[in-house]
Structures are given as C-alpha cells and as structure tokens.
From TrEMBL, chain B:
GO-annotated biological processes: protein maturation
Organism per entry: candidate division GN15 bacterium
Domain of life: Bacteria
GO MF annotations in UniProt: 4 iron, 4 sulfur cluster binding; carbon monoxide binding; iron ion binding
UniProt name for this protein: Hydrogenase formation protein HypD
Length: 322, 367
C-alpha cells in the first residue's frame, strides 16, 4: 500500500520518457565518450534546514561532484531508503524539491529505487544519487593536477551551509538568519572553462570539512604546498559571529554551493572576472597560491601576518564548553 | 561588525606590537590562564610576533584538559546504562577514558546527546520522565552558574529524574598553587575574561598583592590579547603589581551577583583533583548537602576507579608552564589528537592540541 503510493509519487514527480518505460535500467545515448560518474549518499539531519532540504541537496551535491572535472551533468539516478512511518507529506515535499532542483540543473532523473525499512532501522530518510555527465574539453581537470605558482580561487563566502544546518539541529536551536548556500555549480564551471580553458587545473567543492579539508586533499593529491591568506577568505559577518559563538572555525565548516579552483597565473584574472560576472561567483576571490615547497601542507597567513598550519579538521566539529 | 572585526584589526595589532617592543627591556614570563586564550594566541600566531624577551606559557584553564580521567570513566559507566540519557557539551564526547570515549558509548547504543546549555538537559528530563537524565557538569566559574540554575529549576519542577555529574574547578586556587610551587616561572598572569564576567576581578586583588604579580583581565580576540600582554609588560617593566582590566567591555570588579548567588546556593567549595596536576585544596565545587540528591555520583554508585596517566605524558609540566608541547618526545609522534596520551592533547583548547593543529612544523617562520 505504502509502496504503491510512493511509486506513484515518484513517477508523477520525475515524469520523463526514460523513467516511464519502467524497465530495470535506463538506456542512455551520450554525445561523448568521456563520461563523468559520481555517487553520493545523503543522510543529513535535519531533513529541512534554512535554505533547503535533503532532496535539493541530493541533486545539487551530485551535480556539483560531476561538474568538478568540468563535465556537463545530464542524468541522475535516485535511491531512497525510507523508515517505516515517515510522513508522506514530508516525502512529497522532498520529492518535489528534488524535481525542481533537477529541472533547474537541466538533469533528468532516469532510474531509481525505493526501500522501506522497519521503524528504528533507519533515520527517517536517506537518499543516494548517482550523476552522469559528459566532458566536452580535451584536457584534465583533477585534484591531482595542481601546479606550483597556480592561483587558488574561492567562488564565494564560506560556512553558510554548516551553520544553517547546525542552527536547526535538535537541542542546538539558535536564532539566525543564515541560510544554506546549497546551489548547483555546473554553469559556473562552464563559464570558468570558457574563460580559462586548460589554465584551469583543478576544481573541488569544499563540502564536509570545509575549505581546510579540501585544500589539504588537493595539496596531498598533487604533492604541492598551498598558502592561504586568511583575510582574503570571504565570510559573511553573521556567519563569523555564529562561528565565534559556537567555537567553530569557518574554514572547517561545510559548504554546498561553493568551489575552489587552482588556475594558472596567466589565466587567473580572466577566470576571476568571468566568475564574478556569474551570480554563483559574484563574491569570488583569490585566496592563495600553490608552492613547490612544503608538499602536502597547507599554511595560512593569519590576519596578524604570521603563518600557521591550516589543518584537516579532526572528526566532526563540536561545540566547546566555554 | 562591532565587537569582532575591530578586535581583529591588523593595523591596531601592529601598533600594540610596536608599543610592546618599545616597552620591553628584560625577559618576562607571562601565563595566559585560559585554554581559549591559548588557542587564540597560537591560532593567530601572536606568540611568534612578540619580541623574543616575552615568553608566553600556557595555563591550566582548559576544562576538558583538567577533568580527571576517573570522571570520564564514570561518565562512560553512567552513559552506558540502558535507562539513561547522558547530556554533555560537545567537546567532552571525544575525550578518551581509560578504555573508550562517549562517542563509542553512543555508537554502541547509549543515548548520549550534545546540548548547548544544561537547561536543555532539564528540558530533556521533563520530556522523558521514564528516563534518568544526567548532565556532565564540567568547567570553571563560567559554566557553574548555568549548571546551578539547571538544578534550581529541576528542584522547582520536582524533577526526580535529573542529576549532574559534577567536575567543577575554580581558577584562583590554581593560580595560587602555581605561584607557590618552588618551580614557578610565572611573573604575570593574563586572567580569563569569561571567568571574570561571572566572578569579577576582586578575587585576584589578594593574589596580586600577596605574590607581587601583575594580573590583567584579558579577552579572547587578537587585539584583546595583545593589549593584555602590553599591560602586563608595562607593570613588569615598572615593578608594579596590580589587577588591571583590559576586558572592560564585558567585565567589572564585582562580576555578576545573581550568577554568583545561584552557584553559592547549590554548590560549596571543596578539594578537587586536576588532571595532570593532582589535588588542589579548595579548588573546586561540589553539591551542598541539601542538593545532594542531584549528585549523579551518588545516584548511580559509580565506584572509584583509579587510573594512572601514561608515564611518558608531561602534561602536568605543560599545565604549569614548565615545558612547551614541542619539547615533549611523544609530541606529534606517539601523541596526537587522534591518539592522545594525556590531558593537553585531548581538547582543541589544550596547549598540545593547539600546537599540533597550528604549529607542529615549528620550522615555519616567515615567507
């Protein structure tokens, strides 16, 4: 009974010829033989947060992961694990928001799966999405492709998603107007490639672990050092205040609509100008550079001018005692 | 933004640093009491911008660090019980007990919850009358009023399913203990601004005059810390020793009377063990007899577990300002935030963890 309702809900929301065939697989014809695939599972609590919900996040998150190699995302699959007793009206809200998000990104949800698990065997709703995209350029954009003297560009102000989610988590409620930055980045990526071409060496969206985690991953995969200027990193004042109150470092807090790019010095100005002309990159800024020295290590020049290590956060950031 | 950006301004910082350089003529050892200050100093790199004559040593004001291992084990024993909801500030969850931490208890099915305020724990108790709700009451004078308030409220509502596991310590007795030690090197203190918002600074006047030591009540932003250091250096250079208030936007001499009365109503002063240091007489709080029914240690009969700290750990010396983290042979190798040997590596505010996060490569100088 519940299964029927859910099945009908998905077919109604995601309605498209490939899905409607109701086969066990989607058959896709693609215009390129360079394909990007990415998968991600979304287990966020709370399901609804200021500025978005799990459905929107499940679309944007995977669209962005596909886009970070420069691919144009085209198709998504969606898997749902639903805890028995989960509100159908909440599910409908989330599914509609997935549909709208997919529409906004120009991607089609072509196949999916639903499992209902017994009460207590899941936490309300988990969503997995897999994204498929095609690559139209003939160079490599990869986290292992940073080169000494590259310029590090950040597409906008940080830490909004993590703080928005934290503000609504049970027991931690505080008043704030901060909303999640959840947004698709594939258009911004295409604008950057058009402006910078093969001068764009790497792109990554700094989600879990924030900018600090992503920079450390990039430094380590590419065996280079990265130097960051703290005062160049854009942070909204309300976010800075909330981080101060909670004892969190904004550089360690998650984003869902930002990207970090490593760009050759020759193309940096063009790429930055193109980003700033796009709404998703209006506050883009150069925040640092790549060095051959200190491979694997990220260092930060503090606002006072001295240098320190910018570390990978250890586990989840936890609110402090005082 | 007011009250934040102006206290992080690089130009003001440069001016104060220049003034410190002009003022200092001799070597001085200054201790910042509070772990939050240690973290801010190392994070913003203030320790490396100061003239070489000024040595900052990092005090014992990190509540997570000084909570005895036995108490962590008691928390774990209580939280593992089936009918208990164990509520805590977030940073206690990662502190390793002798066998596991509260995160592991949670993953094994224990109901361990992070709260921001002990009053949230009272709310949980109200909502779950069939469960025992225990709040881990850790901290200095800053958290004591909220914890006392939670007990007052629970009593008012006649909640019989709420209790506190108490590990409250007090700053002034620790400052005195350090000054009395024959190994003491501290010549001036930066007192913890947050503690003084509650307690005022009058408690420090007798310490300053008895031990002839400057005490500057100091805030937590880079400019606060630099201004506090400058005030301490000026006193040291002119052989003065008094209590000075750098953190005037938040602190007055008397402190918060309502908060102090609430603490006094629920708790009384008692001897307390400090992790890494040992028992300091009259250095903590315990329940007054009339509130003893809220004491989780009585309610759950957690037997005393004596736990020895790893012999290699020098956190006691670090908390007394006698050693620096990178002078320890285990630092960064056998002792990291993932596998801490002792107190000062377990919390982000511990001196060892701060050095590990921000300066473990001490060869980084300038670029």
């Amino acid at each position: 009974m519940m299964h029927d309702l859910i099945g009908r809900l998905f077919r109604w929301a995601f309605d498209n010829p490939t899905l409607n065939r109701m086969d066990d697989q989607a058959v896709l014809a693609l215009d390129s033989n360079r394909i990007a695939v990415s998968t991600d599972s979304f287990v966020i609590d709370p399901l609804f947060f200021p500025g978005g919900d799990i459905g929107e996040l499940a679309v944007y998150g995977t669209v962005n992961d596909v886009a970070m190699c420069g691919a144009k995302p085209l198709y998504l699959t969606a898997g749902f694990i639903i805890e028995e007793g989960f509100s159908l009206s909440d599910l409908q809200t989330i599914v509609v928001s997935m549909r709208d998000a997919a529409h906004a990104c120009g991607v089609t949800i072509v196949t999916g799966d639903t499992k209902v698990v017994n009460k207590g065997k899941g936490d309300k709703l988990f969503i997995n999405t897999t994204g498929i995209g095609i690559i139209g350029h003939d160079f490599v954009i990869s986290g292992s492709n940073l080169q000494p003297d590259d310029v590090i560009i950040l597409s906008g102000s940080i830490a909004e998603h993590g703080i928005a989610v934290l503000s609504k988590r049970e027991g931690l409620t505080f008043e704030t107007s901060i909303v999640s930055d959840a947004a698709p980045l594939h258009e911004l990526v295409q604008v950057m490639i058009a402006a910078g071409g093969n001068g764009i060496h790497a792109m990554r969206d700094p989600t879990r672990g924030g900018v600090a985690a992503t920079l450390n991953e990039l430094a380590s995969s590419s065996h280079v050092g990265i130097r960051v200027i703290e005062k160049a990193v854009p942070v909204q004042s309300a976010v800075a205040s909330a981080c101060g109150l909670l004892g969190l470092d904004p550089l360690h807090v998650a984003n869902e609509g930002k990207l970090i790019a490593a760009v050759s010095p020759a193309s940096a100005d063009r790429v930055l100008a193109a980003m700033r002309a796009h709404p998703r990159g209006a506050n883009a800024a150069i925040i640092g550079s790549v060095t051959a020295a200190d491979p694997g290590r990220v260092q930060l020049q503090t606002i006072l001018g001295s240098w320190r290590i910018l570390d990978m956060p250890v586990g989840e950031q936890l609110p402090r005692i005082c | 933004m007011k009250f934040l950006s102006e206290f992080q301004d690089p130009d003001s910082a440069r001016r104060i640093l220049d003034e410190i350089r002009r003022t200092v003529t001799k070597p001085w050892v200054i201790m910042e009491i509070c772990g939050g200050q240690t973290h801010a100093i190392v994070r913003s790199g203030i320790d490396r911008l100061l003239p070489s004559q000024i040595e900052l040593v990092h005090g014992p004001g990190c509540p997570v660090c000084v909570t005895p291992l036995e108490l962590i084990d008691k928390a774990i024993a209580i939280a593992s019980r089936p009918n208990v909801i164990f509520a805590s500030f977030g940073d206690m969850l990662r502190v390793p007990g002798s066998r596991k931490d509260l995160f592991v208890v949670k993953s094994e099915g224990g109901d361990v919850r992070v709260v921001y305020s002990p009053l949230d724990a009272v709310r949980i108790a109200r909502a779950h009358p069939d469960k025992q709700v225990v709040f881990f009451a850790v901290g200095f004078e800053t958290t004591a009023p909220g914890n006392a308030m939670a007990v007052v409220q629970a009593e008012r509502e006649r909640l019989t399913n709420f209790s506190l596991l108490v590990s409250h310590v007090l700053v002034p007795p620790a400052m005195q203990a350090l000054l009395r030690s024959p190994l003491n090197r501290v010549q001036a203190y930066l007192a913890a601004g947050h503690v003084c918002t509650v307690m005022g600074w009058k408690q420090y006047e007798p310490i300053s005059s008895q031990f002839r030591v400057p005490i500057v009540v100091t805030g937590f932003e880079p400019i606060d810390l630099l201004a506090g250091i400058l005030a301490a250096v000026r006193q040291l250079e002119s052989s003065r020793a008094s209590v000075e208030n750098q953190y005037a936007r938040a602190v007055n001499r008397e402190g918060n009377a309502v908060a102090q009365e609430t603490v006094d109503r629920v708790f009384e002063i008692a001897d307390r063990k400090w992790r890494g240091i040992g028992v300091i007489p009259q250095s903590g709080l315990c329940f007054r007899p009339e509130f003893a029914s809220f004491d989780a240690e009585r309610r759950f009969v957690v037997h005393e577990i004596e736990v020895a700290e790893p012999a290699e750990c020098i956190s006691g010396l670090i908390l007394q300002g006698l050693k620096k983290p990178h002078e320890c042979s285990a630092f960064g190798a056998r002792c990291t935030p993932q596998t801490p040997l002792g107190a000062t590596m377990v919390s982000s505010e511990g001196a060892c963890a701060a050095y590990y996060s921000f300066q473990r490569n001490r060869s980084i100088s300038s670029h």
